[in-house]
Write a structure and sequence with these properties.
This protein is of the alpha/beta class and 350 residues long. It has helices at residues 5-31, 39-42, 103-121, 155-172, 188-200, 234-251, 279-290, 320-337, and strands at 128-137, 140-149, 177-184, 207-216, 219-228, 257-264, 271-273, 296-302, 305-313, 341-349. Helix 4 links the parallel strand 2 and strand 3.
């Protein structure tokens, strides 16, 4: 007896409805919070990061199953959340240790850094290296180099120096990844002014002079003379010098070393107007050197001897170096003509 077609269709529809309801139940189950014995508990235990691991601070968030780009044959440490490769990820499935690089890896990085520095040091013209950082990921080495260029250098000069550094490091470390940054070097005059201001800000410092800035093997050294009250003891003066050195290093981070020379501040001297001095000899010297008489000329008598103060009038377009040379020449000629003169102060004006 033939079966009822409509009855067969009803049975098929019922079976499909049961499947849809069962599937919906499973979806709802997955959306419910998992109890302690749920899916997460059945996952295999993952290696824990040690306290020194790079990813240790990231344990606040749920684990990701992807610790970064180096996924082949590696297992996640269970705590990475930023997509960065942490200490637990290794290219080999055998490596499970998390933490800082081992001694052999550190030695390879140090050797690579020495080779890179030697390669850069051999460049002509020379390139000033401010910082070099090496790291290693698997068999590949990465170099991050920071070089300096004079503030007035053109952009093309900086790029040319960066290209030479990159090529030199590539030759020394074939297959390495090299990134070179160019930064303007600190102007020596700016360092000198900032060091001078830092020293004057220390209590008991009355005067700062002879400030010098030197580049010694890539390190910046500053030397300066300090004038302190003459009644200070050596111990107190040394404490002031130490405070000056600390202030300069703090306010001028580019400086590595500070050398100070201590001098007592001389007592204020007394002077009086000198009369009966042969001023014509001085005027004659100035006229021969500049073509005109000095704008101002004064003589003072002090306990140290005769002081000569004079003001020169020079062309406004005269280079400062030439003006200084002219003043020094006049000073020397006055000393030769008048041995009784203790000091000559020459001021130049346009």
């Amino acid at each position: 007896m033939a079966g009822n077609p409509s009855s067969g269709r009803l049975d098929a529809d019922a079976r499909r409805g049961d499947l849809v309801r069962a599937r919906g139940d499973r979806v709802r189950d997955r959306r419910r919070p998992q109890p302690d014995g749920g899916l997460l508990a059945r996952l295999p235990a993952l290696p824990e990061c040690g306290a020194a691991g790079e990813c240790a601070p990231l344990r606040q968030r749920p684990a990701r199953l992807d610790c970064g780009p180096d996924r082949a044959g590696a297992r996640p440490c269970g705590v990475c959340t930023r997509g960065l490769r942490c200490g637990a990820v290794r290219r080999s499935a055998r490596a499970r240790r998390c933490g800082p690089p081992d001694e052999a890896e550190r030695r390879r990085v140090d050797e690579a850094e020495e080779l890179a520095l030697a390669a850069i040091a051999g460049l002509e013209p020379a390139v000033d290296v401010r910082r070099l950082r090496m790291r290693q990921a698997g068999p590949r080495q990465f170099a991050d180099v920071v070089i300096t260029a004079p503030p007035a250098a053109a952009v093309g000069q900086g790029h040319e120096a960066a290209d030479r550094v990159e090529a030199a490091v590539h030759d020394a470390l074939p297959g390495s990844d090299v990134v070179v940054h160019v930064e303007p070097e600190e102007d020596e005059a700016a360092i000198r002014e900032r060091a001078h201001a830092a020293a004057l800000g220390v209590a008991q410092v009355r005067e700062v002079h002879n400030v010098s800035v030197l580049d010694v093997g890539g390190r910046t050294e500053v030397s300066l003379h300090l004038k302190l009250p003459g009644d200070l003891t050596l111990e107190d003066a040394h404490e002031v010098a130490t405070a000056v050195e600390r202030a300069i290093v703090e306010r001028v981070p580019e400086v590595d070393t500070v050398q100070t020379h201590l001098e007592p501040l001389a007592e204020e001297g007394k002077g009086r107007q000198a009369y009966g001095v042969d001023a014509e000899a001085v005027v004659s010297i100035v006229r021969e050197a500049t073509g005109s008489a000095p704008r101002e000329l004064r003589f003072l008598q002090t306990r140290d001897g005769l002081l000569v103060y004079l003001t020169l009038r020079l062309d406004p377009g005269t280079p400062l170096a030439d003006a200084h040379a002219r003043a020094s020449e006049i000073e020397e000629r006055i000393r030769q003509a008048r041995p009784d003169v203790a000091d000559v102060i020459v001021h130049t004006e346009p």
